[in-house]
Amino acid sequence: MLFTHFSWTSGVPVAALRERLTVPVLAFGGILMAVTQTVVVPLLPDLPRLTGASAGTVSWMVTATLLSGAVLTPVLGRAGDMYGKRRVLLIAFGLMTLGSLVCALTSDIGVLIAARALQGAAAAVVPLSISILRDELPPERTGSAVAMMSSTLGIGAALGLPLAALIVQYANWHVMFWVTTALGAAALAVAWWAVRESPVREPGRFDVPGALGLAAGLVCLLLGVSQGGQWGWGSPRILGLFAACAVVLTLWWVHQLRARGPLVDLRLATRPRVALPHLAALLTGFSFYANTLVTAQLVQAPEATGYGLGLSIVATGLCLLPSGVTMLLLSPVSARISVSRGPRVTLAIGAAIIALGYAVRIADSRDLWVIILGATVVSTGTTFAYSALPTLIIRAVPAGQTASANGVNVLMRTIGQAVCSAAVAAVLVHHTSLVGGVSIATLHGYLLAFAMAGTVALVACAAALAIPADPASQDAGQARDRTAASRDEALEGA
User: Fold this and answer.
1) Measuring CA to CA, how many Å separate 417 from each of 200, 218, 291, 372?
2) C-alpha dist (Å) from residue 435 to 133, 240, 298, 308, 388
3) pLDDT by residue (tens digit) across 388-420?
4) What pTM was estimated for this model as a whole?
């Protein structure tokens, strides 16, 4: 009797607690992943002095994370579908935490870059978590949970900048990595305890040649895009990288079509219901990233420019904080819109709101409150768009391919961000003026960058509207129409 009472009081509540904590734990992991990727940004201007390396070498602390994240996201997503999503999720958390620990223990730039590459594995946390949520939650809870999970990318980025800026300004720079190490260890521990292993798997042999081919092609592509401004877009190195990318990815595409268990199911990925959300993810990633990238530079520009506010790094991070809070609060709203109108409508609305936000930025980029307002509007649209994308993918692919398909979708966002970084840099470099003997981007250059990002957002809106309607959504819509018609007839008869 005592044993039965003990099992009832300790076993059942613990299981229920684990179930309730699944969504918060996974969301915490997604936010931490985004924080880990962004915390190094405020540190970049001081790293050459702190490490004794050149500015070009130091920039690899960002590039290495971008490259490894882009390569590992689809690979770990596929591994999760095959070998267990929880298992691979814990591996991603472990690599992220190990990378933070190594960064906290060293000032050697080579070791720091390698450690930042380890942290890039955390990019797979979001697609793996979304797949776990699909498998574990009832349908009525999946939409809001997936919306929250997808929004953690923007929330973490908005929180990471002010956090890192505060630590860098008031403490030793290694403290920043000790903090992320402690948070990573906590995320690993609670995920191990709270998250159950999903029974949904797609057995088979892992496509090693496909993984190596995709890795080589993506490294060539993203390395060329990220380093084109420094090495010269017409330099032999950049042209060679793009040529190698075209050859490698062509061979990889042929291999994927012939492989029995491909890394990426291209026949599925090229269907309009999957391909168009991937295209929209690339375009949305481009338009979203310009918001953070340009705002940070604009408000820190010297007041002598006539438009700059001369804000500190900490104040700059705080300017972006409302964007993160907005994404946190609006993710349930976006989920409700997806339930009532369908995720493609939510995606189209989000892209249109992003374009509206850039229209605000173009109208006035001198007053701080308008800058914060415009940035927050862009983040609002990003919340809607990012929450709708995984839902579109979930509805279009089999359960056994959820993690790998969402991994490709996150990869497309990453490519969009990389292309945006290069495009914004190219625009600003060609629109500069001398202020106090220093070449600084002009306000016209920033406005052109906003116009470019807004235009890309409108293209993303068009891509969203071109996505074929989900049959389930059509059936639900027809049912609502029939219900409304019956109600109207009843009222007329009365």
Assistant:
1) 32, 14, 11, 21
2) 52, 37, 14, 11, 44
3) 999 999 888 887 788 888 889 888 988 888 888
4) 0.83
